[in-house]
Amino acid sequence: MTQKFATVVLVIAVGLVLAAAPARAQCAVSDNAADPAYNDGWQNGDNGGTGFQPWVLQAWGSYAGMFIGSSVANADGLDNGDSHGVANDGDIDVNGRSWGLYAGDNGGYAQAIRAFNSA
User: What was the pLDDT predicted at 66?
Assistant: First the structure.
């Protein structure tokens, strides 16, 4: 066997062993706007739930920001959680609360960034 061929076989063998090893990583994270951390609103540095680092919230422009509100009337205009009589139409509230961002014209924008805690 040549050295080049033996190296290729070794690399393939190691790759097969690593590919066959079961993945044991698990990502258990959770948060929602109804968490008590947001009872006073949603501000930069808030940190509710589990498995996340604090929020980094930024807004630029004269009409941009973030808020806690309800998604119930967001798209269908009905305050009953139904879209044209269809229950569970995708409203995303938890206990009546969701996060929201807004930005107007003239280059305004808002962003909400949140990293996972390290494993």
Answer: 95
